[in-house]
Amino acid sequence: MGSSETKHPFDQDLSLTRIAPLRFKGNVTDNWSINGVPNGGYLMALLAHAMLQESAKKDTLVVTANYLHRCEIGEADLVVKNIACSRRFDRWQAVLSQEKRERVRALGTFIQRSDAVTERRYEASPPEVADLEACVAVPALPRFTFFNQMDVRLDPACAGWLGGELTDRLEQKGWIRFKEPRPYDMISALLIADAFPPPVLAVYGMVAWVPTIELTVNVRNLPTTPWLKCSFRTRYIDDEILEEDGEVWDGNGELVALSRQVAQVRRLKA
To answer: Are 66 and 73 in contact (CB under 8 A)?
Structure first.
């Protein structure tokens, strides 16, 4: 990758220093924040990056993260542990702590992919999304630094909340890419799976906070196009708890990743 001066911002912000076997120091930066809080996909990528430093298999299959306490901008301790290893799968656990308090715990399953595809069956197609030129860019705001890094374009059908016009469908869909070009890898798919505004915004408008409780990302294929097509849908909200199912596809109709998120929704008080 070269010196730190030549690294892409995403790679720079995933940098780790090994301080002992299975132990690393990292830095949670302010470059990937949503309303001042580090984005969950970025934190998942940081944890997966730590696990990949030790895993014998270097392709990400699935990562699940539990967000126990809010992360802060600043130094972080990461500890990884092997759980099980077989011929095909290598399974790891990673814990991110700050100020001696565990903030995020993740489980990762890693494989070594081959170029030969033995079986493929899809009973779903890429989502119908408006052409890129017709979509609405999510603006970069001072405390929403994530959108300084990622170019997110929302389908007009679900972008009305940006101007105060709401819909009756809990969905966000559109296109995404890195603003500063970077080749996609399995780690970047984790980031992208948590990159869109929550679907509840389309119906409720700007809510105070939609903190993630648990996020699982299943990575299938590497994209072959710079723009990726995404759809995120919530179908059920009970007692302020919601689910969010996501799909990430590339422009050639290749499935990149699937996600499932459980989160809490806290609406603004009148």
So the answer is: no
